[in-house]
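Is this the right way to post structure tokens for a design question? Let me know if I should format differently. Anyway, here goes:
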């Protein structure tokens, strides 16, 4: 037998083994499906969720906002009032908390908002709505330290924030309506966690993706997250390709004509 025919014979045997293995594996999978029934679980795997967040961490919030509007017809960005305590960029999954205005002497009135922090996991974003709270600090250094220790991505507060010197020191990013020295203690009561809230006018549900950079904050409904990211990345690529093209031709008209992005 020649060397060539020997190699050909070995490859044929190898192909037969692989084919038999695939057939057996397919049969086992079919049998397993018949026993267990179809899966209705829609939650992405940990790896998929991590990959999704990585994508949002590298795409511009402006592109995410444009993609959302193009795909869903909804404006899901927060207003110019929602500003960071320092320049930052992050993305994570929303943990929502609502505080209702209520004068009280109840030492347990705000326990729920603290429990919500301790129940949050890595890559969470704490989204707190403080009713009529532009001049009330919804969070400060202590809460920020707990979130930092639990590896939250950041916090977005429809209300005020305080202890910003310490938050800057530990590098924990917070967006808020303003910086104020006040407290919510005795003035507010916890009204729910991981419920739908309106943060600076934008609907947020637990598990939605919150993306933030120096342009602002945008909310991506979890059901739309994958396709929004895909379009946002496409928009990003076009825009970044346009910069040198416009500079070279000294014409934004030509740039928009070629790439179709503005």
């Amino acid at each position: 037998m020649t060397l060539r025919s020997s190699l050909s014979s070995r490859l044929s045997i190898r192909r037969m083994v692989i084919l038999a293995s695939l057939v057996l594996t397919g049969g086992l999978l079919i049998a397993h499906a018949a026993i267990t029934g179809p899966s209705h679980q829609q939650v992405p795997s940990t790896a998929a969720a991590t990959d999704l967040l990585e994508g949002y961490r590298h795409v511009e919030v402006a592109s995410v906002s444009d993609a959302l509007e193009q795909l869903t017809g909804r404006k899901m960005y927060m207003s110019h009032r929602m500003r960071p305590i320092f320049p930052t960029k992050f993305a994570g999954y929303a943990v929502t908390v609502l505080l209702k205005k209520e004068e009280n002497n109840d030492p347990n009135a705000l326990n729920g908002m603290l429990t919500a922090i301790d129940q949050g996991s890595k890559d969470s974003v704490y989204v707190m709505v403080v009713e009529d709270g532009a001049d009330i600090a919804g969070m400060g250094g202590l809460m920020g330290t707990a979130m930092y220790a639990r590896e939250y991505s950041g916090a977005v507060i429809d209300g005020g924030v305080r202890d910003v010197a310490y938050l800057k020191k530990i590098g924990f990013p917070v967006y808020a309506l303003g910086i104020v020295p006040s407290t919510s203690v005795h003035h507010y009561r916890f009204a729910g966690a991981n419920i739908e809230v309106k943060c600076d006018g934008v609907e947020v549900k637990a598990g939605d993706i919150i993306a933030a950079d120096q342009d602002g904050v945008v909310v991506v409904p979890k059901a739309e997250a994958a396709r929004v990211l895909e379009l946002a990345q496409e928009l990003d690529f076009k825009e970044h390709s346009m910069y040198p093209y416009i500079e070279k031709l000294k014409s934004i008209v030509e740039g928009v004509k070629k790439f179709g992005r503005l």
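Format looks fine. Someone answered above. Worth noting: DSSP finds eight helices and eleven strands in the chain. Residues 46-229 form a domain with the Glucose Oxidase; domain 1 fold (CATH 3.50.30.40).
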